[in-house]
Amino acid sequence: MGATRGDGAAEVRLDEAVTTRFIVVRHGETYWNAETRIQGQLDSELNEEGVAQAEAIGTRVSREPFDVLVSSDLGRAVATAQRISDRTGKPIELDAALRERCFGCVQGMLYAEADQAHPGAFARFRDADPDYVLPGGESRRAFHHRICDAFDALAARHSGRTVVVVTHGGALATLYRRIRGIALDVAHPVAITNAAYNVLVHDGTRWSIEAWSDRGHLDGAEAFEED
Question: Could you name the CATH architecture of 15-226?
Fold first, then answer.
């Protein structure tokens, strides 16, 4: 009997007999990353360092076989996925469900500006309350379920295959929480490097981590802590 997961969306049956492997990549560094500006579902282009990172992860991923290349439809993720596509010939499948969390009215602000514009509220949104929503934004719980549902659906659709997914720091952080059993109302920064090599495995019943924030292909890259 396969496991199912719904959370209010259409249930997805997961095949317990087959292992599915995911190489999950955070996009390369952007200008807004370097400025500590909140991107959310707005966009900023890869900077020079980000382009080099995308080229490096593209080369690394091209050295091992995989079946499918899937990317968030936000520009910074697509630009990173394109480097993988260029080296492997794999077409990019865009999936809006893999977008970064929407930070609503604070998108485009520096973190310090957001704290000043919404004193107390932004800290609550970021650190403590999984159901709090800034105007126009998305709660941590809603984001968590969106990302988990998206990966469960990919595991069901591509059972037994190897899938490369290019997404965002927040998506990786919430997957880490799920796999490690960290509650959504617990502040727990997770080290996630732009364009690092991460491997998640689904065995038909549960998820596990095979590799996390592997920076061996990157020169002097530093991990950024996503919460």
Answer: 3-Layer(aba) Sandwich (3.40)
From the list 29, 49, 55, 100, the catalytic residue is 100
Give how far Cα 28 sits from Cα of 96, 135, 144, 156, 197, Å: 18, 28, 22, 28, 12
> Taking Cα atoms as reference points, which of 111, 226, 225, 98 lies closest to residue 170?
226
* Dihedral angle, C-alpha 178, 131, 165, 227, nearest 10 °: -70
- What are the CA-CA distances from residue 173 to residues 6, 40, 128 (Å)? 21, 14, 15
pLDDT in tens, 138-154: 999 999 999 999 999 99
Verify whether residue 100 is a known catalytic residue: yes
87-102, pLDDT tens digit by residue?
999 999 999 999 999 9
User: In the numeric block, which tokens belong to residue 136?
Assistant: 């126009």
Q: Which regions in the chain score pLDDT beneath 50?
A: 1-12, 14-16
Query: For residues 155 and 169, what is the distance between their CA atoms, to the nearest angstrom?
Result: 20
Instruction: Specify whether 113 is catalytic.
Output: no
Q: Is the pTM of this model over 0.85?
A: yes
**Selected catalytic residue, list 27, 145, 158, 168:** 27
Backbone phi and psi for residue 49, each to the nearest 5 degrees, phi listed first: -65, -40
Contact 131, 143 (CB under 8 A): no
Assess contact for 160 and 20: CB atoms under 8 A: yes
